[in-house]
Amino acid sequence: MRVNIFSYSDKGSNLAVILASLFDDVRCYSTHKSHDDITYVKSSISQVQLEFDNSDLMIFVGATGIAVRSIAPCVKNKTTDPACIVIDECGNFVISLLSGHIGGANDYTHIIADKINAVPVITTATDVNNKFAVDSFAKKNNLAISDMKIAMQISSTILTENVSIEFDDDIIMKNSIGNGLVIDGDNKLGIYVGYKKILPYKTTLNLIPNNLIVGIGCKRGTSSEQIEKLFLAVTKDIDIRAIQSVASIDLKQNEYGLLSFCEKYNLHINFYSAEELNQLEGDFSGSQFVKKITGVDNVCERSAMIYGHKIIKKKTSAAGVTIAIALKQKEVKF
User: Fold this and answer.
1) CATH of the structural domain 212-331, one choice from 3.40.1080.10, 3.30.420.180, 3.30.300.180, 3.90.1570.10
2) For residue 219, which of 248, 198, 240 has the smallest C-alpha distance?
3) Would you state the CATH architecture of domain 2-123?
4) How far is CA 93 from CA 19, 53, 130, in A?
5) Whole-angstrom Cα distance, residue 254 to residue 97?
6) How far apart, in whole angstroms, are the C-alpha atoms of residue 289 and residue 304?
7) What backbone torsions phi and psi does residue 216 show, to the nearest 5 degrees?
8) pLDDT by residue (tens digit) across 6-52?
9) Which stretch of DSSP H or E encloses residue 173?
10) Cα–Cα distance between 294 and 282 in angstroms, integer?
11) Quick one: which of 261, 296, 317, 333 could link to 277 by a disulfide (CB 3.0–4.6 Å)?
12) pTM for this one?
């Protein structure tokens, strides 16, 4: 986590040093030459523009107006902008300024305010009305948001009426649902949490967990196009953002087609030995021919189940490629 702190006075710089002690990867800048541990800059606005896209959290110790003018040219999108916080130089108030939910500014505001005994200032409507905040929920539980416009519609609607929510059977709720939500209601607007490509409501926001493992086996020399063709067929009813990784046997760790396929889809791949795969217990679609070649009776299902909870797509074969998909149980907290 990369943090940048900006201050504008002696008192502000002293507070900046205290704040810096709360983080590991932190850089402090000031327009005032007052502290050896802080880098002097002639223009904080120029430095903010240099650091903005590479920051996770930006803290401004000074007036809110300075912070607003500094970040204004850089602000692009609530899904990518860093968390921005303003703290007065006396440390009385910690204000969440930008990216309160997805960026985490609201959470950081509470944490920092607690550390320096200040008053946290949160202005997002769902928070001040004690309502469920869909973008905060998604970030906290590592869920991909299918459509930010629908997410904004939900945040607006939930202030005055309930919003429906539905979960896959394998999603485990660790606590009660958020204020303003109803389970499986008949509302036209609702949220579906799961890996499937389904739209339970007239207007559905899909929140996609990253909890699927794709096991792949293939003959030597299989092209990435062959793997991709079967992959797209097997996942036609699955949101591929739910895929956490690919798994296969270590005999395939230099298989160009397999590696190229994973690179195209930006999927991490793990390889396992035949010994590791054979240790798994379960009902697998075994093949003695495959066992003679690889030392294991089923590569794709066993690979997927190394860290999987259950198989949701059993072995499918085509053109020298086999694919299976396993699901890891997912817990969510409100």
Assistant:
1) 3.30.420.180
2) 248
3) 3-Layer(aba) Sandwich (3.40)
4) 14, 26, 21
5) 48
6) 20
7) -130, 130
8) 999 999 999 999 999 999 999 999 998 877 889 999 888 999 999 99
9) strand 171-173
10) 19
11) 296
12) 0.86
